[in-house]
Amino acid sequence: MSHIPACLNPTEEDIQLLLSAKAHLGAQNVDTHMLPYVYQRRDDGVNVINVTKTWEKLVLAARVIAAIEDPQDVCVISSRSFGQRAVLKYGIHTGAQGLAGRFTP
Q: Which run of H or of E encompasses 65?
């Protein structure tokens, strides 16, 4: 991870938190655009995602969001049931607009 500052490198605790949240487990089907992020495929067909690349994308997203001056300009959306609670909590804690449920632009 040479393209991010050393202070943003993941700690052992960060990696453990990602693994305990099962952020490394993907689906059985993989889109061609996701292939660079797949570490390997388990015997049961589930694809294991590269945690290092996941961390890099999290850092990128955090830096982009942090660069926005007004939190009201940030809108987070989740129509999936497992993401709706997270979206609402993120909006409450940061002042961003959280939209849970179906969204039509």
A: helix 51-66
